[in-house]
């Protein structure tokens, strides 16, 4: 059984799509799988059962990256092709069965769109991250044993999605204080290599005795394994947020005017989010709606989430 799975160039969307792939792996156990995705999320699939090949694509002008991928795949036959990107060129590949994704509905969560695609009403295909022994052992070296750890991902692409460094530092400081809900916890700071400068703005405000600096130190699969060793994750609306939620740790996401939490909120029983939108503040040279998210509000959401996870209560969401 040969399965071709075509998913997103973006880390967050690729993470969300893993539930679809996991569904078909259950339907076709033992399948040989080829994955086509962006270069950034490509490592997510390397420990997956049955993986035969990962074809990373990097976006190019005039979508020529898809032409290159097609050339690599040409001449093969597939028992099942799942194309979540709706790449017209890929329809020319021979396949016994084809499944095509659809654009996000913008009115419900992306994973609920996938449930519609799979025709599994009442069952949403939650993201799945496949780890192997090697990456689990590396995570132990990145975050050694020694008490609770709070993960934080304060940086993402658009400036309007970034909460102020001093506010992250204030929330984290309150959480790990003697009187906080995670006294003495270490803080693992996650981020991509190109996010180093902005991440440093948060790191320098934290006590060095508590910081584990992982910015630029992991690929997405290694980050997933490291996140699995955390007791809480707090961060921007980003792929890291979805990765933390997929690892089933308590996850709090912060959304600004660019955020669409009804579609891209962190998914799972252990998640929460805070959202602010101000349609008058959409230009890069104007204040961000993120500035209206207070330290006290985020601290309360974090504390409530940790308390609720301990008591298995229903979902928590910050005020919109």
Summarize the structure.
The protein has 320 residues and is α/β, with parallel strands linked by helices. The protein has helices at residues 11-27, 64-73, 110-118, 133-142, 165-176, 196-203, 220-227, 239-246, 261-264, 295-311; strands at 2-6, 32-38, 51-57, 78-83, 95-100, 149-153, 186-191, 211-215, 232-236, 251-255, 271-275. Strand 1, helix 1 (11-27) and strand 2 (32-38) form a beta-alpha-beta unit.
Structure notes:
This protein has two domains: 2-118, Glycogen Phosphorylase B (Rossmann fold), CATH 3.40.50.2000; 135-311, Rossmann fold (3-Layer(aba) Sandwich), CATH 3.40.50.2000. The chain is of the alpha/beta class and 320 residues long. A six-stranded parallel β-sheet has the order 8-7-6-9-10-11, with helices on both faces. It has a five-stranded parallel β-sheet with strand order 3-2-1-4-5, with helices on both faces. The chain has helices at residues 11-27, 64-73, 110-118, 133-142, 165-176, 196-203, 220-227, 239-246, 261-264, 295-311, and strands at residues 2-6, 32-38, 51-57, 78-83, 95-100, 149-153, 186-191, 211-215, 232-236, 251-255, 271-275. β10, α9 and β11 (271-275) form a beta-alpha-beta unit. 32% of the residues lie in helices and 19% in strands. The relative contact order is 0.13. It is globular and about 60 Å long.
How are the secondary structure elements laid out?
Elements: E1 2-6, H1 11-27, E2 32-38, E3 51-57, H2 64-73, E4 78-83, E5 95-100, H3 110-118, H4 133-142, E6 149-153, H5 165-176, E7 186-191, H6 196-203, E8 211-215, H7 220-227, E9 232-236, H8 239-246, E10 251-255, H9 261-264, E11 271-275, H10 295-311
Parallel strand pairs: 1-2, 1-4, 2-3, 4-5, 6-7, 6-9, 7-8, 9-10, 10-11
Helix pairs in contact: 1-3, 1-8, 4-7, 5-6, 5-10, 7-8
């Amino acid at each position: 059984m040969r399965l071709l799975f075509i998913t997103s160039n973006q880390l967050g969307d690729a993470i969300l799509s893993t539930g679809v792939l996991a569904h078909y792996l259950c339907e076709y156990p033992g399948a040989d799988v080829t994955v086509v995705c962006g270069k950034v999320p490509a490592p997510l699939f390397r420990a997956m059962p049955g993986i035969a090949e990962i074809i990373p694509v990097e976006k190019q002008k005039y979508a020529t990256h898809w032409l290159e991928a097609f050339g690599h795949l040409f001449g093969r036959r597939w028992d099942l092709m799942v194309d979540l990107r709706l790449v017209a060129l890929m329809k020319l590949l021979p396949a016994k069965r084809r499944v095509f994704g659809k654009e996000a509905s913008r009115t419900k969560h992306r994973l609920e769109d996938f449930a519609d695609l799979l025709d599994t009403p009442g069952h949403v295909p939650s993201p799945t991250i496949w780890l192997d022994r090697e990456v689990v052992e590396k995570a132990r070296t990145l975050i050694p044993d020694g008490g609770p750890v709070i993960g934080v991902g304060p940086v993402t692409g658009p400036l309007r999605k970034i909460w102020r460094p001093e506010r992250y530092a204030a929330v984290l400081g309150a959480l790990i204080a003697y009187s906080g809900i995670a006294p003495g916890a270490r803080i693992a700071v996650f981020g991509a290599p190109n996010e180093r400068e902005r991440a440093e703005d948060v790191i320098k405000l934290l006590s060095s005795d508590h910081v584990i600096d992982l910015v630029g130190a992991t690929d997405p699969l290694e980050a997933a394994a490291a996140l699995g060793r955390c007791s809480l994750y707090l961060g921007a609306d980003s792929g890291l947020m979805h990765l933390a939620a997929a690892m089933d740790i308590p996850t709090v996401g912060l959304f600004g005017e660019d955020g669409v939490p009804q579609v891209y909120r962190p998914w799972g029983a252990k998640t929460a989010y805070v959202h602010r939108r101000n349609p008058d503040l959409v230009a890069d040279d104007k204040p961000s709606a993120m500035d209206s998210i207070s330290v006290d509000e985020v601290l309360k959401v974090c504390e409530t989430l940790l308390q609720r996870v301990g008591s298995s209560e229903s979902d928590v969401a910050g005020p919109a």
